[in-house]
Amino acid sequence: MLEGASGLGVRLGLSEYQRDFGTRFAASGGYASWKLERRQSFREPGNPSWDALVEHGWRESLRIVESQRDEFAEEVREADQLGVELLRIRVVEAPLTPYLQWELHSLVVRAECGEQIRVVGSDQVASLESEAPLPEILTVGQGTVYEIVYTDGGVLAGAVRYEDEAVALRCKKIFRELFHRGEDIGRFFQREVVALPPPVLEFSDVCQSR
Length: 210
Hints:
Distance between the termini: 35 Å
Strand order of the largest sheet: 1-7-6-5-2-3-4-8
Helix content: 40-55%
Oligomer: single chain
Largest sheet: 8 strands, mixed
Shape: globular
Radius of gyration: 17 Å
């Protein structure tokens, strides 16, 4: 997906990436912001709902997700005011990892607050993964693409920024095709997620998130 961009990216640490994205997003009116999530397990220390899952359990974690509706809706309103559509594609493999089960509860609330989110299976991206799994990708504006970087343990560590309109156009074309073939997250959630028992975190999730 990032063919032709090798060696052209700028590595950004976490705080630098967050500042850089915020600045570019604020100036990106008229262009959709796409996010592709491929990896099946992460850790999100500092996220109130994730921290609650680690420390207090499933019920408290879901209560906090529900309490974040105003925050999620405000993010969508701010994007709307800028003229930016928020679109996300979530690749899902079965059986669901504990992280993904948790994240899907958060994503369905985000969708109910206005973010456009669809789910695709790993079979739908297999043709794009002949050499390696797809990276986590975020686009902003006309020609900026971030390859999001994580630690080996799945904690956000920054990004590699590419400023190449040809690369951005290629990514967006792929994302539009995947989005068109994907399933609305609300339908997927009701069929595959809502009836599941609470997830059981791995020992490393608990220890390394504290």
